[in-house]
Amino acid sequence: MTSLLLDEDFGEIKTAAGLRRQMRTRKAHKAREKWLERCLLEFGIEPLKRREVGIVNGRWMLISKGDERLEREFPPDGEDICYNAIALRCKLLLGEKLESWQIFKALNSAIQNRGYDENIPWKESDVSLPKKDDDDYAKKLSQYSREKGELLESFEDGEKYDYPCFFKAYKMGLWSPENPERVEIRIGSDAQKAKGYVIPRKDVEREFESLVEAASKWHPAMKGKAMYIMYGIAETPYASFKPALRKKFDLKRGAESDWTALGQKIPRFDNRIIDKCRLIPRLNVCKIRPLSEARGEGDLLHYEITLSLKLLNLRFFRNSNVESLSFEEFKAAFEIAKSAKYKMGKAALKKFLKSISASVLSEDQSEIEAPRESGRASFSRPAMLLLKELIFSGMTPAEFYAKKAGEISNADPNKGIVASDLDFIKLMGNCGWNGIFIPDVETYRFANNGADSAKLINGLIGSQNNPIVRHRLAFFYERIKFLESKFGVPDKVVLEFVREDFMGKEQKKRMQIEMKKRASEKMLIAKKLDEAGYKGGNLLLKMELLEKQGGICLYTGEPLLPSELGVLEIEHIVPRSRGGPDAQYNYALTREKTNKEKADRTPFEWLSSDPVRWAGYSDRVKARAGQLGRKRCELLLEKNAEELVEKYTALAETAHISKLAQKIVCLHFGFQFGGLGGTKRVFTVPGALTARIRSFYGLNKILHNEDLAKDALSYEEVLKRGEELDKKNRKNKKHHALDAMCLCFAPTGVNSKRARIDMLLPPDIRGERKAELFFRKYLDRLIPVDVAPKKPRLEDGIYSMRAVGGKKFMARRVNLVDLAYKSGLKPVYDISALIKLLDKKEKGIINAQIRKLVADFARTNPSEDEWRKWCGECRLPSKNGIGTRVIRVLLNYGEPAEYKDLSKDGRGAFRRGDGHKGQIVWESTDGKYYVVPIYVHASKAKLLAELDANPKKKRVCDIFTSHCMVKIGNTYNDKGELLLPEGVYMVNTIWSIGQCVLTSANGDKSKPININYLMKAGMRKVSVKDL
User: Fold this and answer.
1) In the predicted model, what is the mean pLDDT of residues 24-30?
2) Using one digit for the tens of pLDDT, what is the confidence trace for 512-535?
3) Confidence category of residue 128, pLDDT binned at 50, 70, 90
């Protein structure tokens, strides 16, 4: 048995797209430099020769060196010539006479960073930069503007020096406001980082224009030519994008004429995919025009529909019930929001609700936000016109459909709306006016398409824009075909998707914040219980409910005391017998007598017949609405609580990835879906259900082989230990298989909500011990297999080769402050990590003087704030006053074997991979086995050819890769001791010294074992199909 695993990022194309973008950017940059050189040659300035590189015998090589004057930054001792490009720009602007080569170097430097233009003409259609990148640029722009403003305001006539070059020169210590007419030619010890800022394009343009005008004093031909050098013959930014200029100067969008000194290649077409309308799929979605630019009624449809749907979904307290707006109230609210730019703030909404004798459900829902004003809507304009007409008619969807269908006589889709375009209204069924919703038209049309299922499925997969989703669906389709060939058509298919799969970024963020908040609240409650000496039972959950309810019974208003926790009962708001889930939002705490009196009724059914009693109950719920949460409040007060439960638990089925998977299964096997007749045979369950099954039957201990032993621990210890074991479970790759087994017993179908968790398993395995033995029997035989292990790649950053005492090693500079942090997705401060590095002596921090400085301070056990403050002030001791700042330190990274010089000029830009391509295991003529690693930068064919030429080689046994599966017999050492029992294992790592670490099916790693012992035990690779 196998459990197939996939790396979550497998199938992504972002990395490859980024590399292509870098290549195109570099190509454009070289073209801009060539244009500058041609222009300056016309004006009598000879460009300095640049270094030339190219591919020779399959690798990048330096073909010819560049002019030293171009590559040198600072003069050697005894020379006073200015080489620094930033300093040369400042000098030129200050009116100093420069040599021809210095003018070239200054102008060449000025175009290296083109500057950021946040208002490019095609901005709305450009999707090349994600919002995060835009936000990063905005932050860096703001930082530059702020720091530059502070600098220029610090002295008189600061605006005279308002150019990027003076700001950078100040940062580098080459220029100072104290003597603004002087520019240094060397940096001092006060130099700061001058990179990391984003400069506005307009500032770059202004400086370049001033530089050209300053240079024209000595080269008159350049007078007035700045715009020509920057933007070519049209002397206008983005000229080829503008039809009039394109025609006048015979330009083409995206041609080489775009590549001028500050030019930007114009996209030849709008690089975006326009989505189809969710209501009338034959039409495209419409563009959203900002309110301030709206030209007519059509431009307002997006705002009107968005507001209308929000008002239709608005729920509030009134008459001790949770209600929605009537048609007349809807129209009144719509007019109020429309006059306020289609939104209602907290005060406005509360005022309106008060006018209709209502109040908000909770503060979380106390405003109606304005619709977005950019991008594209979810619908086409014709669809929104129909939807608006339906909503403002006051009719039910069925009534409106009957009326509208009779009015449409057109049968040509090219000439307007046809009868079939009203399908989305028909799909709303027999709901009332205030039940209007957006139906899944795409699924309905897809299900009713009579085409070949394989063709439909391949088209569905191919239509997905996200490459990861596309890959997962294709893999899923291949797996169900394989399983069908092996086991036949299934009786039913159950799919599980965790909550994160059907949540947007903001929803995920809110959920994580809520989970952290609840975890901290539970920890505080646990401490209270421990301090009070409570033990056993589910008192933790009871105490949590008691605090949420404010220490009272919501149903009766009677006080509930902590001393009663042992006898108080957790009651299901919507009874389990009627589909109420075992979920937090469906729990209330009450006494046994009250629970029996409520019986199998919802709160509304039980209490609403007595107006006085219901009003008091409603007031108690409303008073605790913030603590109880929206879902619980709705179940406590809603008339149709059962329907709400269905809505909450149906979220997983309506998720995008879930719907796609269901479509593929149903199409392939011919099952019912999307309005087609037949028995439903594909079900989706939330991830929380499998977690509850595992927990109830004590199955988690199969994964971590430890019992939580709740009775022997305090509540606080139970929570902490539970978190540790949950993390341990997730590390055991068999947890996916355990969840899949739980899905086999998950309740599905019309009676699934009534199923009791204690009755899910068959009677013969229903006990905790029996269930553990049953599940363990299968899991012990199961082998988790990585279907597509992550490919190794070159690490970011370069290393240099150094030598001490004739021994070579690799070195790299790192920030001093980072040495006290453990690396990871979120670095964590840990001074012990620095102590360990210091203990390595010269094999850690190479410079002995810096090493001593750091060691002396580190051994004082500083706090994080103290460490960061010290790093900001650390300087080397000096006899002549203030010593040099220590910002970065050189670290020893060990042997150079797996590094390769990938520089183009042979100057030593060494890089290594974050893993190996594999390990060749070969046998020598004397019967011994050896390992040859295939580094990321190495050629497998070349290594094999070298082995073939080795006279000691008898044979190449195999090429093993990390995470590949191997089969071995009983493995013994030379003393006859058993090192590893016979079985199938995963290769964790194989070292070049001939040691190997294997991982068992249970996730247990072996100690390093000599490769000779393993090969003699018959170690060989096995494919997934053979397992």
Assistant:
1) 91
2) 777 788 788 888 888 888 887 777
3) very low
Q: What is the pLDDT of residues 766-779, one digit of tens each?
A: 888 899 899 988 88
Cα–Cα separations (whole angstroms), residue 91 to 40, 95, 99, 165, 263:
19, 6, 11, 10, 26
Given a contact cutoff of 8 angstroms between Cβ atoms, the answer to whether 821 and 868 are in contact is: no
Copy the structure tokens of residue 285. Answer: 């979605």
Query: Which pLDDT does position 127 carry in this prediction?
Result: 44
Mean pLDDT in the chain?
86
> What is the pLDDT, as a whole number, of residue 722?
73
275 CB burial (10 A radius; 0-12, 13-18, 19+): middle
- Secondary structure (3-state) at 92: helix
Residue 143, number of CB atoms within 10 A of its CB: 13
Which of 621, 580, 570 lies closest to 600, judged by CA?
Answer: 580
Question: What is the CB-side half-sphere exposure of residue 38 using CA atoms within 13 A?
Answer: 13
Secondary structure class of 737 (helix, strand, coil) = helix
pLDDT, position 981: 93
For the chain, what's the residue count?
1027
Task: State the amino acid at position 349 in one-letter form.
Answer: L
In one letter, which amino acid is 809? Answer: F
| Pairing mode of beta strands 783-788, 978-980 | unpaired
The answer, yes or no, to whether residue 832 has pLDDT greater than 70, is yes
Give 736's Cβ-side CA count (13 Å radius): 14
Kindly give the pairing relationship between strand 1009-1010 and strand 978-980. Answer: unpaired
Note whether 148 and 158 are within 8 A (CB).
Answer: no
Q: What percent of the chain has pLDDT over 90?
A: 45
d(CA 323, CA 927): 83
Give me the helix-helix angle, 100-110 and 85-93, nearest 10°: 100
Q: Is 207 exposed, middle or buried (0-12, 13-18, 19+ CB in 10 A)?
A: buried
Q: What is the 3-state secondary structure (H, E, C) of 590-642?
A: ECHHHHHHHCCCCHHHHHCCCHHHHHHHHHHHHHCHHHHCHHHHHHHHCCCHH
Report the b/e string of 897-915 with b at 16+ CB within 10 A: ebbbbebbeeeeebbbbeb
Q: Count CB atoms within 10 A of the CB of residue 584.
A: 15
Q: Would you tell me how many other CB atoms lie within 10 Å of the CB of residue 52? A: 12
Q: Average the pLDDT over 944-958 and give the result.
A: 94
In this structure, what token pair is assigned to residue 766? 């229903």
Q: How confident is the model at residue 402 (pLDDT cuts 50, 70, 90)?
A: very high
User: How confident is the model at residue 581, as a pLDDT?
Assistant: 75
Q: How far apart are CA 69 and CA 49, in angstroms?
A: 9
Helix boundaries (H) for 859-939: 864-873
- CA pair distance 838, 819, nearest whole angstrom: 10
- Strands of the 359-360 sheet, one edge to the other: 321-323, 316-318, 359-360
What's the burial of 517, exposed, middle or buried (CB within 10 Å: 0-12/13-18/19+)? Answer: exposed
Q: What's the count of helices (H) and strands (E) in the chain, helices before strands?
A: 38, 28
663 pLDDT above the threshold of 60? yes
| Residue 338 scores a pLDDT above 80 | yes
675-694 confidence digits (pLDDT tens): 555 678 888 887 778 888 88
In degrees, rounded to 5, the angle at the alpha carbon of residue 761 between the alpha carbons of residues 757 and 765 is 130
Q: What is the DSSP letter of 160?
A: G
Identify any residues that bridge with 276 across adjacent strands, giving them in sequence order: 284
pLDDT of residue 785 exceeding 70, the answer is: yes
Alpha-carbon gap, residue 679 to 675, rounded angstroms: 11
Positive/negative CA dihedral, 650, 655, 657, 660? positive
Residue 913 pLDDT grade (very low, low, confident, very high; cuts 50, 70, 90): confident
- CB proximity list for 252: less than 8 A, separation 6 or greater: 240, 246
User: Is the predicted pLDDT of residue 126 greater than 70, yes or no?
Assistant: no
Tokens of 77: 């001792």
Cα–Cα dist 771/698, whole Å: 8
Dig out the tokens for 342 from the structure: 């289609």
